[in-house]
């Protein structure tokens, strides 16, 4: 019976039959590894980034230097600003134009080629929800006993944002990760149908499910009497929906059947640090 030995067994056996190890002989294992396929040009700009994996973010954020970079709007950056400010973490609030985003993307200065970006002691980190959780874990806004519920709420809001992306951009695939160009334009008929279904089916259904599953008439916030990262995310999204600024064309009455969700918006708006922040940033 012919038996094929595992690869690692064969490698070890070489030294016992007089063959020299590639490492000991100075050849190096790289000689035995195929060369990498040449990378596309857009990947070359990534070489200038300091990778987040080079540094483990500190567990105590009170003594680190924080710089938050986002567009000159609320969008996906405002919940981070509010969480930082409410949590008492000092940070530089950098607001840049979309043209500046394009420049930094082309020069490889933005992880994942987009904003928001949170620099922690000079190292850039991206992805808004990862940043929000990091802030929450260091400010008490992401308590361990409620993490599963908070994460579920974040995912539910992420589903809503995915539904809104075509309406935000007027293009099915949004922006190109390479240069920010808009991809696959929608026809006027598609835009009209999308907006109608958002207002009559998609958003009412998703919001009412969140209302029924994750809120309670007896709670001020999603997880009881204290706010969490989920409340700050919802405050930015929900107040924008009510005001008609979160997504153009979405009905401002979209929350009429969600009294608990409306109350959470009002309660977050009353938090002293939120009142202070909004007074200083009336945009």
TrEMBL record:
**InterPro entries membership:** Glutathione-S-Trfase_C-like (IPR010987), Glutathione-S-Trfase_C_sf (IPR036282), Glutathione_S-Trfase_N (IPR004045), GST_C (IPR004046), GST_superfamily (IPR050213), Thioredoxin-like_sf (IPR036249)
Report the domain of life of the source organism.
Eukaryota
One Pfam family it belongs to: GST_N
Q: What GO MF terms are annotated? A: glutathione transferase activity
Signal peptide location: 1-25
Question: Domain GST C-terminal: where?
Answer: 143-283
- Keywords of this entry: Signal
Q: Which residues form the GST N-terminal domain?
A: 64-143
Q: Which GO terms describe its biological process?
A: glutathione metabolic process
Q: What is this protein called?
A: GST N-terminal domain-containing protein
Q: Report the source organism.
A: Chromera velia CCMP2878
């Amino acid at each position: 019976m012919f038996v094929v030995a595992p690869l690692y067994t064969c490698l070890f056996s070489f030294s016992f039959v007089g063959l020299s190890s590639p490492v000991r002989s100075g050849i190096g294992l790289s000689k035995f590894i195929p060369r990498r396929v040449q990378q596309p040009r857009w990947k070359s700009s990534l070489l200038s980034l300091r990778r987040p994996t080079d540094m483990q973010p500190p567990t105590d954020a009170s003594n680190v230097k924080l710089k938050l970079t986002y567009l000159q709007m609320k969008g996906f950056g405002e919940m981070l600003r509010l969480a930082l400010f409410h949590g008492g973490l000092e940070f530089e609030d950098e607001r840049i134009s979309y043209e500046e985003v394009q420049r930094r993307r082309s020069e490889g200065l933005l992880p994942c080629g987009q904003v928001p970006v949170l620099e922690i002691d000079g190292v850039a980190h991206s992805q808004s929800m990862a940043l929000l959780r990091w802030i929450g874990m260091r400010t008490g806004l992401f308590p361990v006993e409620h993490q599963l519920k908070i994460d579920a709420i974040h995912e539910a809001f992420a589903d809503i944002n995915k539904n809104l992306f075509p309406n935000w951009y007027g293009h099915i695939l949004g922006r190109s990760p390479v240069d920010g160009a808009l991809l696959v334009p929608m026809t006027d008929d598609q835009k009209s149908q999308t907006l109608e279904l958002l207002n009559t089916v998609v958003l009412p259904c998703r919001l009412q499910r969140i209302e029924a599953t994750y809120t309670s008439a007896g709670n001020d916030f999603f997880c009881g009497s204290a706010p969490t990262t989920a409340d700050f995310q919802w405050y930015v999204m929900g107040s924008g929906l009510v005001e008609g600024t979160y997504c153009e064309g979405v009905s401002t009455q979209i929350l009429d059947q969600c009294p608990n969700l409306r109350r959470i918006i009002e309660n977050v708006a009353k938090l002293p640090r939120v009142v202070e922040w909004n007074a200083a940033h009336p945009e």
